[in-house]
Write a structure and sequence with these properties.
The structure is a single chain. Among the domains are: 86 residues, no CATH class; 97 residues, no CATH class; 72 residues, no CATH class. Helix content is 56%, strand content 1%. The chain is built from 22 helices and two strands. It is elongated.
Length: 387
C-alpha cells in the first residue's frame, strides 16, 4: 500500500469511527441519544447534566451554548443528529459551524439529508455547501434516489443545473477524492450512475420523475464528446443494475426506446451487447440491442478485460443455465461459433467452460447444438421466442 493510499485508509477509518462508533449512550429512556450515543464519556456526562436536570432544555443548541464547546468532532456529531432528526431551524443556527467543516464532512451531512430529511433541511445545507457544483449535486441526487426520497429528488431537479447543456464534454467526477463518492478512483459519468440507481431503487415514482431528465440528458450532444450520448445509458454499470429482474428491464427498455436513433457507428451497440453477455445474460435486452443494429459478432469492446471476445464467447465463460440460453439465442440470431479471441487465454469458444458443460443445461453437447442450429437456420427455422 502506498503512503497516499494509507492516508486515505486512515482518514476513512477515523471518519467512520467518528460518525458510527458511539459506545456511550444516554441512560434516559426515550432520548434520541439513548440509541445514537456519544463519542466520549465526557459528552455523555455533560448531556445528562445539561439536558436531563430540571429547567434544562433537551437541545443541542443549548448544550453548545452552555459548554462553549468548539470541539469539531462534537459539533459534527451534533449536526449529524440534527440532520437525522430533520431539525432545520437548529441546523440554520449552526451554519457557521457547518461551513467550518471539511468539504467531505459537509458532503456526508448532505448524504444523510438526501436519505431521510425534508426539502427544508436539504435547502439549508445545499445552499451553504462549499463543494457545491453540478457534478457533486448529481452525487447527492443519486443518494436521494437510492433512498426513494421523492421530494428531495424533485427539489434537486428544480434547484440545480443537472443537465449541463452548455458543456462541451459529458459531466464526470472522480470517485475516491475527499469531496466525491468514496468507492474507487475511476472517473465515471454521473448520469450513468443515476440511471443505475433509478433501476436499483425499484420505484416507479422515482423512474417517472427522472424519465424526462434521463431522456434529455442521453439525447444531448456534446461538441467535444466522441461517443453517442445514448451510449451512456448502455454502460456495464447500468446493464448490471437490471439484475435480470423483468420490472427493471422494462424500465431500461422504455428509456432506450425513447432515445434510440440511427447510429453513426455500431460500436456502442456492440459494446452494450457484450456487457449483457458478460453480466445479466438478459434475452430482452439482447433482443432490443440487436433490433437497434448491434453487430452480433462484434469483438473489440474497448475494454482491456474484454480481450476481443464476441458476445457469444463472453457468455460462455461461465457455466450457468442463463448463459447457455443466451448462447443458444445468439447462435439462432447468427452468431459465429468459430470466431477466435486473439487476446484471450482461451481463444476458441468451444474450449470455454460454458461450452464444455452446456449439456448440463440444454441436454446436448456444444457440437450438437452448433450442428442443430446451423441446420435449422438453413431450413429457415427459429424458435419463436428468439425472434
Amino acid at each position: 500500500m502506498s503512503k497516499r493510499q494509507g492516508f486515505w485508509t486512515r482518514s476513512l477509518q477515523r471518519s467512520h469511527s467518528a460518525n458510527h462508533t458511539r459506545p456511550w449512550k444516554c441512560e434516559v429512556a426515550g432520548c434520541e441519544y439513548s440509541e445514537t450515543g456519544f463519542l466520549s464519556q465526557r459528552m455523555q456526562r455533560d448531556h445528562l447534566d445539561r439536558f436531563h436536570t430540571e429547567g434544562q432544555s433537551d437541545s443541542p443548541i443549548s448544550y453548545l451554548g452552555a459548554t462553549g464547546s468548539n470541539d469539531k468532532a462534537e459539533i459534527r456529531s451534533i449536526l449529524f443528529d440534527l440532520v437525522r432528526a430533520d431539525r432545520g431551524t437548529e441546523i440554520r443556527s449552526l451554519l457557521g459551524h457547518y461551513k467550518a467543516l471539511r468539504i467531505y464532512d459537509q458532503m456526508q451531512l448532505l448524504k444523510s439529508a438526501a436519505r431521510s430529511s425534508s426539502t427544508s433541511t436539504m435547502s439549508i445545507l445545499f445552499n451553504d455547501w462549499d463543494g457545491k457544483n453540478t457534478e457533486n449535486a448529481l452525487g447527492v441526487l443519486a443518494w436521494a434516489i437510492q433512498s426513494k426520497n421523492h421530494e428531495v429528488v424533485k427539489w434537486l431537479l428544480r434547484n440545480t443545473d443537472t443537465r449541463l447543456k452548455g458543456k462541451a464534454t459529458y459531466p464526470s467526477f472522480r470517485e475516491g477524492s475527499e469531496n466525491e463518492y468514496m468507492l474507487n478512483r475511476n472517473a465515471i459519468d454521473p448520469w450513468s450512475k443515476i440511471l443505475a440507481s433509478v433501476l436499483e431503487s425499484d420505484c416507479e415514482t422515482i423512474f417517472e420523475i427522472l424519465l424526462p431528465e434521463l431522456v434529455d440528458e442521453f439525447l444531448t450532444e456534446r461538441t467535444k464528446a466522441k461517443r453517442d450520448p445514448s451510449a451512456r445509458s448502455m454502460t456495464l454499470e447500468v446493464i448490471r443494475a437490471t439484475s435480470c429482474q423483468p420490472e427493471r428491464e422494462e424500465k431500461l427498455l422504455k428509456l432506450w426506446g425513447l432515445i434510440t436513433r440511427p447510429r453513426k457507428s455500431e460500436l456502442n451497440l456492440g459494446v452494450a451487447l457484450g456487457y449483457v453477455a458478460e453480466s445479466c445474460c438478459s434475452l430482452p435486452l439482447a433482443k432490443a440491442l440487436l433490433s437497434y443494429g448491434a453487430p452480433i459478432n462484434y469483438t473489440n469492446t474497448g475494454d482491456t478485460w474484454g480481450n476481443y471476445r464476441t458476445s457469444l464467447h463472453r457468455a460462455l465463460r461461465r457455466s450457468r443455465p442463463e448463459t447457455a440460453e443466451l448462447a443458444k439465442f445468439l447462435l439462432y440470431r447468427g452468431a459465429n461459433p468459430d470466431v477466435s479471441a486473439l487476446k484471450s487465454s482461451v481463444q476458441r469458444i468451444e474450449d470455454e467452460i460454458g461450452a464444455r458443460e452446456i449439456s448440463k443445461w440444454l441436454g446436448m453437447t456444444w457440437d450438437e447444438l452448433v450442428t442443430k442450429v446451423k441446420a435449422d437456420r438453413e431450413a429457415g427455422i427459429c424458435p419463436p421466442e428468439y425472434l
